[in-house]
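User: Structure with S-adenosylmethionine, tokens only please.
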Amino acid sequence: MLVGRTPRYRRLLDDFPVFPIVDLWTDTGISGFADKKVYVVQTNPRVVQRCILMTTDPGDLVLDPTCGSGTTAHVAEQWGRRWITIDTSRVALALARARIMGARYPYYLLADSRDGQIKEAILARRVPSEKPTNNDIRQGFVYERVPHITLKSIANNAEIDVIWEKFQETLEPLRQQLNNALGAAYEEWEIPRDAEDAWSGEVRGIHANWWKQRIARQKEIDASIAAKSDYEFLYDKPYEDNKKARVAGPFSVESLSPHRLLGVDEHDELIENAAEQQLGYGDKQDFAAMILENLKTSGVQQAHKEDHIAFSSIRPWPGDFVCAEGTYVEGNTDSGPRKRAGIFIGPEFGTVSRPDLVSAVREAADADFDVLITCAFNYDAHASEFNKLGRVPVLKARMNADLHMADDLKNTGKGNLFVIFGEPDIGILDAEDDQIQVRVNGVDVFHPNTGEIRSDGADGIACWFIDTDYNEESFFVRHAYFLGANDPYKALKTTLKAEINQEAWETLHSDISRPFDKPSSGRIAVKVINHLGDEVMKVFRV
Ligand SMILES: C[S@@+](CC[C@H](N)C(=O)[O-])C[C@H]1O[C@@H](n2cnc3c(N)ncnc32)[C@H](O)[C@@H]1O
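Assistant:
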């Protein structure tokens, strides 16, 4: 820096070797070498990363209500933030789930750990702290840092004098020897950088040695200045422990809440129909009519193609719950017997509960229907256990979320809009030491050709999860098993390379669970997911 024409001090490029980030982020554009997108509107992770690092600390909670492929959750997971993400699309949630499950993350050194204390001490050139550590992520990571060198920090650095004194002990005798040998009187700053041709080998040796020590002194002083000056943390560059591999922590995926709304008056009496009206039954004639039209064109699909139910007619039916009568021919032939199905349509927004199904199937039995077909976006946990009343089977079809926008869809009959996912057939087995195991035997499927319900092996199941201590509110995946023909954890296996225990890995690919203790809550829940992403949950008392 100049004052007039007089140099006052020199500022080197590496006195402060970083630039602050400003509000134009030209470095976050997507390069041609970036990872391939899994979602067409996927956000560049660098942008999300910068936002998260600027606004949160490790351990904070990040909410992204438009999940898409889960970039926010993925980045939050990487940086030790907790996260919640929401989407209306099952496709988005399935992509996000797979992306997070298959990811491998770096392990960053925690400030509140012994390894972190040691690293911090090395960086600041002091003895490690002896404070007890708790591995609390909220204390942050150990970050790379860059010096911010000022005249003040150099002036206040007492270590420079110590280094100086230490080197004087070797530099001074060497200077004396050089002066004696040359008959000169060089001060330190007068010693030439290069040896002269006329000097003897011995003098050259003393000269070279002096310069070696002189450079070493400067390096040590520079390092001390850097270590003792102010510095800026690089919050996007924590130190990694390369010996540890990290995968995503446990998370749960939840669908629409199964809570029913009940209306009560001032005497706590239930107001009839209030619940149904709130949930969108009753007054939504247009919705039911639209659903019936789509049902007529697409029919109902089950796990196997041959078990498709195609309606020859669908007519309105004046019931309280059953709103239409559908006819189909058993065996899908011209000559087969004609069967009558009562049709119940769930609410446009909300979940179908077990009492709704019971009332609907009673009505269907009274009207002598052969089967009740219910169509809904979601069933609550207890509804999914209900399959039959007397001789009348209940086929629960899940409606595709695309039907929410059916007005904008072409009614082409293509795509599985109504899919029945049969009831999972699950056994609870006693294991040693008073533990239990769960086995999935398959899925019960209704065969419209014969009118029978038969268990259909485990082929239709893509994966199944157990909450070994179900609290009746949220399902926590405490065990996960994958039955798909291709190892669905392949992505994670590839990511982790050789660092997996083959034997433990094999147990993930099984229709029988590992043994576990009976829970104190007395309840476990089993969630079974098919290849289309439909899921059913069953709760068991154990
Ligand atoms: C632009 S994408 C988000 C992309 C995401 N940041 C990523 O990196 O993949 C917007 C998402 O919001 C979802 N969405 C639209 N309306 C919504 C709503 N009302 N509630 C929740 N999600 C919604 C869409 O399904 C879509 O997946």
